[in-house]
Amino acid sequence: MVRVGLLLGFFGAAMMFSACSDDDEDINYPSAVTELAEVTTDADSLVKNITTDSGRSFVPQQPITAYAPDTLLRCLCMYQEEKGHTAVVYQLAGIVSARPVDVQKLKETPQDPVTVISSWNTARYINVYFSMRTTGVDKHGLGFCDDGITTETDGTRIAHIRLLHKRPEKDAESYSQKSYVSLPAYLYEGQADSIAFSIQTYDGTFTKGFRF
After folding, report:
1. Which long-range contacts (CB under 8 A, 24 or more apart) does 66-72 make?
2. pTM listed for this prediction
3. 91 has which bridge partners?
């Protein structure tokens, strides 16, 4: 059975929400591979193609319904590749990869701290694996804030993006819940020469760079 988690919501101007669960981490899938991927849907909201960050592109062997038609989604995909550019998809979980919102359009820019576990760049994204401290009473708000583009003395244009994180008011820091975000760096190609992506952590500000 495929688990498709594409849980989205809004607060303020355009803040995306996401939920991540570790409930299935102890399930073993023989020969399965887990990767971040781009997922496209058709007019009926069915997943029509999955392209992983390693360059594999395939069609799922079973029908999978997403939350929106004709859309490009960022997902964590667990799959087993088969012949004929197809794959058996065991899990497909949506992760936050929204277009950054102009800071002037946001009523609030919360930056409750997280713990960065790892970060890396791919051809189109800045990816961060992190954990949030929670009791699981409600979903945390996650999104991206665009603080504008600055120009250095040498002419280099840098886009400044922040991770926004809003903890539910009644939530407490009982345990750590792991999740991913993928900043769509490709949206700034032609507008900036590089991106400075900042995340507020318990140890201060973490910044990850991306150069086109």
Report:
1. 66/4, 66/6, 66/39, 66/41, 66/94, 67/6, 67/8, 67/94, 68/6, 68/41, 69/41, 69/42, 69/43, 69/44, 69/45, 70/41, 70/42, 70/43, 71/40, 71/41, 72/38, 72/39, 72/40
2. 0.84
3. 3, 78
What are the pLDDT digits (tens) for 159-185? 999 999 998 888 888 888 899 999 999
Question: Can you read off the two tokens belonging to residue 79?
Answer: 């799959």
Cα(125)–Cα(197) distance, rounded to whole angstroms?
A: 11
- Given the structure tokens 């694996």, which residue do they identify? 129
- Tell me the per-residue pLDDT of 125-160, one tens digit each, with 9 for 90 and over: 999 999 998 887 788 889 999 999 999 999 999 999
Q: Name 140's Cβ contacts closer than 8 Å, sequence gap at least 6.
A: 17, 18, 19, 112, 132, 134, 165, 166, 167, 168, 171
**Amino acid at site 179:** S
Please name the residue that has the structure tokens 């708000």: 141
Shortest CA distance to 110 belongs to which of 136, 141, 138, 139? 141
